[in-house]
Design a protein that fits this description.
CATH superfamily of the largest domain: Fructose-1,6-Bisphosphatase, subunit A, domain 1
Pfam families: Inositol_P (PF00459)
Family: Belongs to the inositol monophosphatase superfamily.
Radius of gyration: 18 Å
EC number: 3.1.3.25
Order of helices and strands: HEEHEEEHEEEEEEHEHEHEEH
Strand order of the largest sheet: 4-3-5-6-7-8-9-10
CATH topology of the largest domain: Fructose-1,6-Bisphosphatase, Chain A, domain 1
Mean pLDDT: 93
Largest sheet: 8 strands, mixed
Structural class: alpha+beta
CATH class of the largest domain: Alpha Beta
Keywords: Hydrolase, Magnesium, Metal-binding
CATH architecture of the largest domain: 2-Layer Sandwich
Low-confidence stretches: none
Cofactor: Mg(2+)
């Protein structure tokens, strides 16, 4: 077993507890009450709320002084202004609600705005990715590393496609026109946490999205970087967790990808 710090152990405990609840809810999807955030295309359910409450309770018992930023409940400031948990309790809610098992519990700790530890737990696939700065990245306690593929024509990419109420649809169409002729494949999984985990373990060579939230990617930033990857914004600039875009990739393809997804408006 990989050597887990008390921090990682606490984060894994919270992720596993939330994951067990999500598995129970997944078995009873038809009974869940579904609500909408801004439009019919942006859903959440009782399962999201229960999972976030579970994570918050577990993490608060470990470090009650830390702040907590959750997708469903927003930011709750803590007595320690430097440390904040960043949590998406159910990344891939649409997948979950249609019965697709590609969804994850995403937990990160950010210190002074930088993600320093992350856990991505995919309950129905029995896969748990985790990393802490300077300690490497792991899948179910086995070390992982990014892909060694060297050329774009070999690359398989993950992408977040903007749904109806999200912006930048023209940008996405341009990206597809540029990339599909020069890569091996492009996949849209519907859960950024899973996409980033797949970059970290070498299944994907990159993942990008032009409209994304901090809780979707914070855990993945640490996991990808500790596995040897690069994470920037989609312009290739240093990532700010709440800047709204992300590009996670293998170093050898990063600059080509930045060019391929450059803004259509110049």
């Amino acid at each position: 077993m990989a050597d887990r710090s008390p921090l990682i152990a606490a984060m894994l405990d919270a992720a596993f507890a939330a994951g067990e609840g999500l598995k129970r809810d997944f078995a009873n999807i038809a009974q869940l009450q579904v609500q909408h955030k801004q439009g019919l295309d942006d859903m959440f359910s009782e399962a999201d709320l229960r999972a976030e409450q579970t994570v918050r309770e577990r993490l608060s018992s470990f470090r009650p002084e830390y702040g907590f930023l959750g997708e469903e409940g927003g930011l709750v400031a803590g007595d320690d202004p430097d440390n904040v948990w960043i949590v998406d309790p159910l990344d891939g809610t649409t997948n979950f609600l249609i019965g697709l098992p590609l969804f994850a519990v995403n937990i990160a700790l950010a210190t002074n705005g930088r993600a320093v530890a992350g856990v991505t737990h995919i309950p129905l696939l029995d896969e748990t990715f985790w990393a802490e700065r300077g300690q490497g990245a792991y899948l179910n306690d086995q070390p992982i590393h990014i892909s060694s593929r060297q050329q774009m024509i070999e690359a398989v990419l993950g992408v977040g496609i903007p749904f109806a109420s999200k912006p930048r649809h023209e940008q996405f169409a341009a990206e597809m026109a540029r990339l599909t002729p020069i890569v091996s494949g492009i996949r849209r999984l519907g859960a950024a946490a899973v996409d980033m985990a797949y970059v970290a373990c070498g299944r994907f060579d990159a993942y990008w999205e032009q409209s994304i939230n901090a809780w979707d990617i914070a855990a993945g930033v640490v996991i990808v970087e500790e596995a040897g990857g690069i994470v920037t914004d989609t312009l290739g600039q240093p990532l700010v967790l709440d800047n709204g875009t992300v590009l996670a990739s293998v170093p050898q393809l990063h600059s080509e990808l930045v060019d391929a997804i450059a803004p259509v408006d110049g």
